[in-house]
Specification:
about 15% strand; alpha/beta; about 525 residues; 19 helices; 19 strands; six-stranded parallel β-sheet; about 35% helix
């Protein structure tokens, strides 16, 4: 006689609901307590209803799911067993929380009666993520998932599975399934009046979730130059903005009537200093409803507003920006041919149209912001919620599942931090460009450079041959030391994951190069 136990019923009920809500990608880490979910997912995958990605390491799995969520703007469940497994999701949950990304955690748990009894692999998983998830449930019975998913940001389902975990029931539990398309949450649009003639629009790297086309149209409506942390999304953006605004006198000359900020600006001190001097500051970011509730501005908006004023383009205003833009470009024209800044500029120009680009935190993303020439044709991603260097390879692989070609630019420490992601690498086309300066290069550009013990506690040289590390995982790899070889790798990458180790000058030399660019710019401005 076939029997259906409570664990199987809860697992099937949960997975069926998620499929019917239009969720199509599931990321699973193997375990025993989550066996009912694993079996249900495999059966749904065999029917062609879902894509099932199996990732051995839970931390990597969560960041991989985060990458898919970034690329699709849909909820992506990540599934694990009980105990320490769920705690390994914490870094990705924090990133999802601060980025407002749709990550769904399904953690298998022991029954509540076993908590605090010393039972194996049992801890209190109920509300383990505290306020970093928008909603959570701790249950041993079927529930309505749709009500909990009517939000944005991370969600947690803690599912208590009692033994027996397996069933002999073979009923077609997926029969008659009806899949609906996810609906986007609509936000009210406000109106703004009395906008000045000289405005500027500053855009954080993730654009607060808004489309490039929306932002470009808004910039036109307020007749404003665009400063963006992501120059690879806006071809008409002001180039090299962190350098351009590094001079206090320039910031004063370019102080607008209204400063508009979309999203968060997390990369450049000079841009943030410019924002601090705003006469009137308007911040636009949906996250202020739930995450960044303490942000300050003269006006705080959750959506891009309609402009009721008729603003005529001030050509002198744009000409002033272009004057300093040219000086900034001249200051970087003397960069060495092979340094981190020139490499960032080169990579940005060489990536093929239609590709995705993931940029890791620390120096790579700042170099692209400062030195790249604005363009379009690629879709860029970064972890700017908390700007960690963890999970970068995993996120890039998740993003790559949605593109024919993807590129990731990652620092050497970021690569080593997430190297376990290569253990069971996904079948994607991903070019991993690793900027190898043998340590934490960003610290050489910060005030602690040169203090006693700097190399031990900040520089942290690792001395590891990254190409050999990649080879040990069976990953294709190459070391490049010049622009011609790097160009070849970018142009000819076609299939699978390939690690390109870019050997660059010492970290101190790179810091000196950046300092010289800023010095040159100040001299040009003063002429």
């Amino acid at each position: 006689m076939e029997t259906l136990n409570l664990a199987t019923n809860l697992a099937r009920h949960t997975i069926r609901q998620l499929i019917e809500l239009g969720i199509s990608d599931f990321v699973l880490s193997p375990g025993s307590r989550n066996a009912p979910l694993s079996i249900a997912l495999y059966e749904a995958h065999q029917r062609g209803l879902i894509e099932l990605h199996v990732r051995i390491d839970e931390r990597s799995a969560a960041f991989f799911a985060l990458g898919i969520a970034k690329a699709t703007n849909r909820y992506v469940p990540v599934i694990c067993t009980s105990g320490t497994a769920v705690a390994n999701y914490y870094p990705a949950v924090l990133e999802a929380h601060h980025s407002d990304l749709k990550l769904l955690i399904l953690s298998a748990d022991r029954p509540a009666r076993l908590r605090k009894t010393g039972a194996n692999q049992t801890t209190n998983q109920n509300k383990i993520f505290n306020n970093f998830v928008r909603a959570s449930i701790d249950t041993a019975t079927a529930f309505d998932a749709k009500k909990l998913l009517d939000a944005s940001g991370p969600i947690h389902f803690n599912l208590q599975f009692d033994e027996p975990l397996l069933t002999t029931d073979s009923n077609d539990w997926l029969a008659g399934i009806h899949i609906s398309e996810p609906k986007e949450k609509l936000r009210a649009t406000s109106a703004l009046k009395n906008i000045g003639l000289r405005n500027v629009l500053i855009v954080g790297h993730d654009r607060a979730g808004f489309a490039v086309s929306e932002i470009v149209a808004f910039a036109k409506s307020i007749s404003a130059p665009i400063i963006t942390e992501d120059p690879l999304a806006f071809k008409d953006a002001i180039a090299h903005a962190p350098i351009l605004l590094s001079d206090e006198n320039v910031r004063s000359q370019l102080n607008p009537d209204v400063t508009f900020v979309i999203g968060r600006t997390t990369l450049s001190r000079s841009i943030n200093n410019y924002i601090l001097g705003a006469k009137r500051l308007v911040v636009i970011d949906p996250r202020m409803e739930s995450v960044d509730t303490a942000r300050t501005a003269d006006e705080k908006l959750f959506n891009i507003p309609k402009i009721e004023s008729n603003i005529v383009r001030d050509n002198d205003w744009f000409a002033l920006w272009q004057k300093f833009e040219l000086l900034a470009a001249k200051s970087i024209s003397e960069l060495p041919d092979w340094c981190e800044g020139s490499i960032a500029k080169f990579i940005a120009a060489e990536i093929k149209d239609g590709s995705a680009l993931f940029i890791s935190s620390s120096r790579p993303i700042r170099d692209l912001e400062s030195f790249a020439t604005p363009r379009v044709g690629i879709t860029t991603y970064a972890n700017r919620g908390l700007a960690g260097i963890d999970g970068n390879i995993s996120v890039a692989m998740g993003i790559a599942t949605r593109y024919q070609e993807a590129v990731a630019v990652i620092g050497d420490l970021g690569f080593l931090h997430d190297v376990a992601a290569l253990t069971n690498a996904e079948a994607v086309n991903l070019l991993l460009i690793v900027i190898d300066n043998d340590g934490g290069g960003i610290f050489s550009t910060l005030p602690q450079r040169g203090i006693a013990g700097f190399e031990s506690i900040f520089g942290t040289p690792h001395g590891i041959d990254i190409a050999k590390v990649a080879a040990s995982y069976g990953i294709s790899n190459v070391i490049v030391k010049n622009a011609a070889d790097l160009s070849h790798e970018i142009a000819h990458h076609q299939e699978g994951i390939r690690v390109v180790v870019v050997k660059v000058p010492h970290r101190d030399a790179n810091a000196d190069t950046i300092a010289n660019v800023l010095k040159k710019y100040r001299e040009l401005v003063a002429l």
